[in-house]
């Protein structure tokens, strides 16, 4: 009995010491103040120095929380019980959140820096007039390949993937829209095509790709490519820039037939408590110099035209991540296809996955 | 019984342990890498540890995780022990079995479902997500584990011990504190440490109930996946591994002491 009481008291003491330490740390970081702003973003998707700078300028303390998928983020916001002031969903999720009435309309008069955003990235189909969202980063879907393992290929066209030399070499990302989209693009159709004949054609073409496919994987394709386990993979440009930094033999290409253009966007959820602060934060992130610094850290492509002036030239001139206007014109943002069409995409993708070589 | 195990069996054991520990040591090895990635070792550095200790947000998250684990293990142990005693005291075998069944259902049911239902419950009840919601849910999923760890010890205890104590004039309180609890002490510690580890590594339930600036390590590391995990997480893992080793040693020390006293606990 004495043992038990001693042990339990020890546990209590340790917990109390920890709690005091947490309080101290919170106070030293200013988290316990009243003027706070909760930002809900992807993990490691912002330069912490930028946050410090914002705190210094405005006196608002930022509480930074992270999520790992759009769906997870939406669930948290939908259920309430949280006070996220700014969140960063991808474009299709912005649309979903708008439909579910989870977002607050942005007050453009409080966002003077909105003028810095490249017009190409404004007023897009998923949020006409940017009523609810402001682009944060953008990117493409393309092919990352190992120049050492494939010295004489450059993947300027989707059709290069069908090269018989690539037998059992390709990693695909496990996403219906990405893979079916690749099939559609390679045939010259739109990514948002819902014509069943076209979709069937795309699937037939994809089926002929099966001998070349090594695996259909999720996030682990980054690790596999970085370690040289496979020579080619279909990836998002953000992932590509990250693994190219780790493994210098890798290169990235967006095929000239066109591809997907994706966005991560800043929004203000209905759960927000500090709406004014949220606007201030978004406006701050749109500032050219801040966006430049943040982009250098995150290394995704920034939609901020003015920021490009403050960034290193080799970054801005990298056509792999800031493609030429001709190519950008061919890039398409995913439309919301509606439940029925999306289910059809998923079905086609499933059939493709089950197709035997 | 004293037959020596064959060298082959020993070799097998060594290989298994190597496979089990290799990833951890690989991770720890790279926490000293001066290169920024895990793809090649460039040179020795302690920078990642320095970075770790200067990252206030991460430190708060680590401390949060520890506090939640300790407190939830403590509270669930107390509740679980009384629960187990209650189950044992039940007169009818059928009731006992059905309660035990309900207890087991909670252990085998998927974490995701438990997490989602807690999220719905807390938001319906108007409880803000944060420290208390995480603590409550961890206590809830730890209790069945504690019950399961304590119950065998209780069942093993001869009922005549209690009868004898009562015959000698012990009150209910005396029976509890001088007979039952000392006897089941090893089980209680086992339950406590099980609850502790369950709480430390739980992601699925915790993910649903964190919010408002409160987060734990598992949730935080998971959300780093999109950008790739920085080496200061390796450094953190190395430290946590060390702490776990210390905890295991403490556990063995305590359980040996408790085990030695075993019946001798009666003296106190």
UniProtKB/TrEMBL annotation, chain A:
Keywords, sorted A to Z: Periplasm, Signal, Transport
Cellular component, GO annotation: periplasmic space
GO aspect biological process, one term: polyamine transport
GO molecular function: polyamine binding
Ranges that cross the membrane: none
Pfam families, sorted: SBP_bac_8
Annotated residues for binding of spermidine: 92
Transport among keywords: yes
Compartments, as annotated in UniProt: Periplasm
Gene3D superfamilies associated with the record: Periplasmic binding protein-like II
Protein origin, superkingdom: Bacteria
Keyword 4Fe-4S: no
PANTHER family on file: SPERMIDINE/PUTRESCINE-BINDING PERIPLASMIC PROTEIN (PTHR30222), SPERMIDINE_PUTRESCINE-BINDING PERIPLASMIC PROTEIN (PTHR30222:SF17)
Name assigned to this protein: Spermidine/putrescine ABC transporter substrate-binding protein
Highest classification ranks of the organism: Bacteria, Bacillati, Bacillota, Bacilli, Bacillales
Automatic annotation (TrEMBL), chain B:
Main location: membrane
Domain ABC transmembrane type-1, chain residue ranges per copy: 62-251
Compartment(s): Cell membrane
Claim: Cell inner membrane is one of the keywords in the record: no
UniProt keyword annotations, A-Z: Cell membrane, Membrane, Transmembrane, Transmembrane helix, Transport
GO CC terms in record: plasma membrane
Topology of the protein relative to the lipid bilayer: Multi-pass membrane protein
Domain of life according to the entry: Bacteria
Regions that span the bilayer: 12-32, 58-87, 99-125, 131-154, 175-197, 203-223, 235-254
GO biological process per UniProt: transmembrane transport
SUPFAM superfamilies to which the protein is assigned, alphabetical: MetI-like
Recorded family membership: Belongs to the binding-protein-dependent transport system permease family. CysTW subfamily.
Protein name: Spermidine/putrescine ABC transporter permease PotC
């Amino acid at each position: 009995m004495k043992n038990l009481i001693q042990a339990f008291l020890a546990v209590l003491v340790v917990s109390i010491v920890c709690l005091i330490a947490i309080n101290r740390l919170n106070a030293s970081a200013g988290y316990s103040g009243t003027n706070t702003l909760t930002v809900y973003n992807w993990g490691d998707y912002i330069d912490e120095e930028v946050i410090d700078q914002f705190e210094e300028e405005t006196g608002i303390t930022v509480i930074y929380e992270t999520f790992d998928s759009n769906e997870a983020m939406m669930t948290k916001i939908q259920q309430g019980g949280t006070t996220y002031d700014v969140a960063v969903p991808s474009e299709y999720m912005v649309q979903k959140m708008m439909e579910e009435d989870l977002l607050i309309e942005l007050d453009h008069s409080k966002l003077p820096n909105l003028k810095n955003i490249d017009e190409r990235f404004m007023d897009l189909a998923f949020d006409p007039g940017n009523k609810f969202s402001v682009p944060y980063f953008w990117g493409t879907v393309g092919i990352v390949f190992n120049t050492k393992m494939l010295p004489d290929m450059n993947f300027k066209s989707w059709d290069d993937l069908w090269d018989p030399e690539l037998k059992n070499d390709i990693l695909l990302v496990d996403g219906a829209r990405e893979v079916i989209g690749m099939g559609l693009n390679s045939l010259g159709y739109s990514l948002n095509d819902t014509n069943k004949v076209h979709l069937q054609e795309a699937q037939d073409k994809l089926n002929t790709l099966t001998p070349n496919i090594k695996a259909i994987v999720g996030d682990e394709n980054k690790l596999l490519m970085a370690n040289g386990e496979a020579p080619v993979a279909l990836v998002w440009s953000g992932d590509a820039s990250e693994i190219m930094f780790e493994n210098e033999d890798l290169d990235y290409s967006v095929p000239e037939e066109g591809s997907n253009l994706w966005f991560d966007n800043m929004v203000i959820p209905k759960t927000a408590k500090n709406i004014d602060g949220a606007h201030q934060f978004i406006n701050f992130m749109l500032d050219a110099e801040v966006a430049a610094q943040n982009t250098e850290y995150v290394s995704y492509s920034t939609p901020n035209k003015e920021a490009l002036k403050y960034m290193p030239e080799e970054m801005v001139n990298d056509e792999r991540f800031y493609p030429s206007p001709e190519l950008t014109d061919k890039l398409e943002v995913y439309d919301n296809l509606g439940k029925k069409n999306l289910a059809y995409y998923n079905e086609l993708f499933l059939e493709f996955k089950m197709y035997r070589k | 019984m004293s037959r020596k195990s064959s060298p082959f069996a020993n070799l097998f054991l060594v290989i298994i342990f190597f496979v089990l520990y290799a990833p951890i040591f690989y991770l720890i090895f790279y926490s000293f890498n001066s290169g920024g990635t895990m793809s090649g070792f460039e040179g020795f550095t302690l920078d990642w540890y320095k970075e770790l200790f200067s990252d206030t947000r991460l430190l708060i998250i680590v401390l949060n995780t520890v506090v939640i684990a300790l407190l939830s293990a403590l509270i669930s142990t107390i509740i679980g022990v009384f629960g187990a005693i209650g189950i044992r005291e039940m007169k009818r075998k059928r009731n006992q079995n059905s309660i035990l069944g309900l207890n087991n259902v909670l252990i085998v049911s998927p974490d995701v479902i438990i997490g989602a239902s807690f999220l719905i419950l807390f938001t319906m009840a108007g409880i803000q997500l944060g420290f208390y919601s995480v603590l409550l849910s961890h206590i809830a999923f730890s209790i069945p584990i504690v019950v399961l760890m304590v119950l065998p010890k209780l069942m093993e205890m001869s009922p005549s011990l209690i009868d004898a104590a009562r015959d000698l004039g012990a009150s209910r309180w005396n029976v509890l504190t001088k007979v039952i609890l000392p006897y089941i002490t090893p089980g209680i510690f086992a339950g406590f440490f099980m609850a502790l580890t369950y709480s430390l590594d739980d992601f699925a339930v915790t993910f649903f109930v964190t919010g408002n600036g409160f987060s734990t390590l598992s949730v935080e590391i998971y959300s780093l996946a999109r950008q790739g995990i920085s080496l200061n997480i390796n450094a953190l893992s190395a430290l946590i591994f060390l702490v776990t080793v210390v905890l295991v040693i403490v556990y063995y020390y305590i359980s040996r002491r408790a085990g030695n006293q075993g019946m001798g606990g009666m003296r106190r």
